[in-house]
Structures are given as C-alpha cells and as structure tokens.
Amino acid sequence: MPARVSETYVLRTYPFRESDLIVSFFTRDQGKLRGVARRARKPKSSFGSGLERLSLVDLSYSQRETRELVNLNSCDLLQSQFDLLDSFEAGVALDYLAEVSDQMLPPHEPNERFFRLLTAVLDYMHERAPGCTWAAITYFSLWATRLSGFLPDLAHYPDRNLSDSSRELAAAMLRAHIADLPARSWTKDTALDLRRFLIRQMEDHVERRFHTPPLLEAL
Fold it and tell me: Are 115 and 134 within one domain?
C-alpha cells in the first residue's frame, strides 16, 4: 500500500474514537476523499495545525481499493487561513466555502477548475480589500454552481427576485476567466441578491440545506 502525496484542501473534520479524526479533503489529482487521521487530536500529533478548515497542505495518505476511508500519514502546511479569523465575517465565509465544497463535490472525481476556484477565492480574501468577503462568496457561489453543471443562463433566467443589474453582473462574471477575480464595486445588498438565488439553485441539488447562509445574511 504505497503512500501518495497530494496538494490538498482540508474541508471538514469529525471526532472519531478517543484521539482520531475523520477528515474530508479535496485533492488536486484525486478529487474529494475521506480518511482517518490517527492520533490527530493528541497535543504532539504529527499533523499539527494542518487539518484546520481550508488549510492547503501537502498530504501523505495510503489507500486500499477495498476500503472507503484512506489512512492519513502526515501533512506539510502550505497555506493557513488563520489570519482571516480575526474577522467574524470572514470566518463565516470560510465555513460557507468549506460546507458548499464538501456537499457539492462528488467523491473520487478530480476537478482541477474547482481546485483553482478555491485557490483564487482564498487568495482574494487574504488581500483584505473593502468588501472582499461578499465579493468572494458570491463569486464562489456563481462558479461552484456553474462547475457543478446545473446553473442556468442567468441572462435569461425568469426570476423576478433578481434585479436586471444583478443578472447582468452575474452573466458578465460567468464569462470571466476562473482564475481572475473581477475588480468590481460590491455591496452587501448586491451580493445577497445574487447569493439568495444561487443558494436556491444549489439546495435543489444537494442532500440537505446549507447551515451558513443565515449567518451570512445576519452580518
């Protein structure tokens, strides 16, 4: 059972037994996987802070064809999102990015464009530009829905709750290159208008309702 090393985003972790964690993670080359990080909850764990939500790591893991869960061996931290946690708004946005990714990505299916989407959005949030949190989550929602294959053409979508200006903005963003976050003036109302529509679209295609949108709307 040879070990594999992949560039990985950690999506979610769950306690397992006394000191282990179940980890849902998204690799660049193998797609979304789940595995067991043994003794990860102990103070002297070799995983350190590498299993925090949306940490970018080089993850070493071993996989057997007959088992659903892989065994996580170690990880080297490449990028942490810790410096974003001084903002409650950004913290809720990180929850949203991780939750949507975990729910929408099918297991064992590589998705290079979705991986680059996460990278672009997180890099943009680290710039700390005014309004960047709302711009980031709305941009992510548009492209996550688009890359999952069920977003309709917003330029012709008959939704009265979506204003003409927001529909035109959404259509323009869909035509933008995925790695280039558009330089636009964003407000909370503009972002909420688009995000409510996109959440309705996404929740039609996942097993349960998302938890973080009500928190975002309350900010």
Answer: yes
